[in-house]
Hints:
298 residues
Amino acid sequence: MDFRKTYFLLPNLFTLSGLFCGFYAISVCARLSDEGGGSDALYKASLAIMLGLFFDAADGRIARLTRTQSELGLHLDSLSDLVTFGVAPGLVIYRWGLEGFGRAGLFIAFLFVAGGAFRLARFNVLSLRAIDEKPGKYMLGLPIPVAATVLISTVMAFHAIGINQTTNHILVATLVTVLSYLMISRVRFRSMKDLKLTKRTTAVVGLLLASGVLVAVRISRPAVLILLVGCYITLGLIEEMYLLRKGRVERIRAARAQALAPAPTEELASESEVLAELGIDDDASARAPAAPDGAVTT
């Protein structure tokens, strides 16, 4: 038996485990009563989605370590992400903070699912086009696991401080709409695959750890996730503004250089036109006998 063939099962098993976490979260939300309450159930569903984040981060690394990347794994991972980080968080946030809007709240929650589906489909297309290239420094659009982490960590943080359900439905709807737009936008976010251990990165990581400890002590432990993903999204927006400004400056410089460049020279006139302007008959010069070698003509 060739055990190398079983290596292809490892990343897919992790992917399916993440898919089960999303399915479990959906089943928990489906069992909630319509009479209110159910905060503990929503917290359990949020924990299941958080566990799905672990499986989602592990399957890709296992596939790279075992060299078992495939198109099947790529599409399976996207389908799993759509359920675990699209449908499940959309249903959790609907039961937690959008149910008071009725059908409008259901539509807003669906915007999150639709934005995640579009984001994953675009990611697959771009990945298949650049399948032989190295991973880029940036990703187009907010990754759906990050967007799901914002929603789920919000639910968990409010549960930790004793708030079962939010009363500010407009703020929740705004948050869901903004996240949905960021997923389908052309804003570039760092993939974090090119990080190197330098003094700058060490200082940033140390600052984040210190801030995380402070937030965990003063507010709640789930609020640390909100801090981390908030810093990630803020970094992406700041870098996008910088890249747009840099591209605009380069276009202006190119336009100025083109305007100051000398006009292209006209095509050289033909030899006959030059001889005619000098008053030399081309035919006569052709009929004149050639001077012998070493002779000087006047």
